[in-house]
Amino acid sequence: MEAGVERVGPAPRQILTDSVYDAVKALIMDDAVPPGAKLNMDALARDLAVSQTPIREALARLESERLVLKEPLRGYTSAPLLDRRAFEDLYEFRLHLEPWAAGRAAERADDGSRLELTAELATGTEVPTSGRFREYQPLTTHDARFHDLVMRLADNTTARAALADTHCHLHIFRLFYSSGTGATVHAEHGAVGAAISAGDPAGAEAAMRAHLEAARDRLRPHVH
Asked: Domains in the chain, please, with CATH?
């Protein structure tokens, strides 16, 4: 940054792009654009009172999160929900990876990691009662950050990238959300964080496994 130039925040273009991305994402997560439906850029631009440029950028970001699909000659469509096979495969993968990572993070626990876990567990503690994405989005963001933090504390960049590439937190919350989900997630994260902070690898592994199995069992009735 040049001397005498003060950065005051994101540029207006970036703010617009982010707000359009959030708006289109909410339409998908709330099923206002149902799975398989076409996302018409002209209609979205008109409804959101913006040009096609931020719409195009938003759809590209959502494609990278696998919430939309881009098909030749058809354009963008809303991605399907996880089906039974994809859901079970996702949790099988997570159950192989994340309990190990929690145990590894506990082995490496130090004052810095304990502070990071405490700070993250203090975020998003409100339990949204609405099933609308704008209300429970802070919880999905916390959920993704918490699991990513555990992976980072395990210090395996390949494993961390593999989990991040699934965008699993968006896709599982897209299946179902209730206020009970939020309260339970916070409690389960707390148990994982406490075991890691205590330097208890076996306890951390068991707590993460219990969290993932409980999440899988909560969601199974909503998978078709």
From this structure: 12-78 (1.10.10.10), 84-222 (1.20.120.530)
Token output for 6: 């003060």
Q: What is the mean pLDDT of the chain?
A: 91
Indicate the DSSP class of residue 81.
P
List the structure tokens of 62: 């959502």
Single pTM value for the model: 0.88
181's enclosing H/E stretch is helix 179-197
Enumerate long-range contacts of 52-60, CB under 8 Å, 24 or more apart: 54/16, 54/17, 54/20, 54/21, 55/20, 55/24, 57/17, 57/20, 57/21, 58/17, 58/20, 58/21, 58/23, 58/24, 58/25, 59/24
Average pLDDT over residues 39-61: 94
